[in-house]
Fold:
Amino acid sequence: MTNEHVDIPAADPATTQATADVVAAREALGQELVRLEATARAAVDVRAKVKRNPGKTAAVVGGTTFLAVGGPRRVFRSVKRRIVGAPDPLPPSLLPDEVEKAVRALGDDGSRVRGALEREFAAFVDTNRKGDSKFTRRVLLTAGVPLASEVSRMLLKRFFDASADDVAGREDAIRARIEGKEPPASR
Structure:
């Protein structure tokens, strides 16, 4: 910004006051722009944040990776198997005894009929299981989405929050650049 001074004949004290107010507002605007630029630069300087807080950065990366690869689900399944035990293996045939008798009564084409019946029965089991999981999915989404949203909002706020020292140092560098001076040594 340039500091141009315009000489206006002072005919009225109100005009003089208005001119002074405009000059003061312009100077305040310049200071706010410097502060805004410094804050924005400090907020997006990821490299400096990582250097300042390597432990927090590692924790955030590790937690994100744990969630991305399905870690909570794996841990839950592992704990469940240790507490309850491994589930019983499925029987070789999923058909009830009455259906087995009907399949045996078909004769030569029994193996093809058996395969078709097993596939249809497995599809029936899948459709009924999906119906049960819709309720569970709704319950988890009802509680999980707001929780995940709040956690991610807090993480992003903490990640992009700039320290006062960092902003102050950047303000000094920006003011020096505007005034054409050499910027102070980086911190």
In short: The chain has seven helices and no strands. The chain has a mean pLDDT of 77. The first helix runs from residue 13 to 44. Residues 12 and 86 are 92 Å apart (CA to CA).
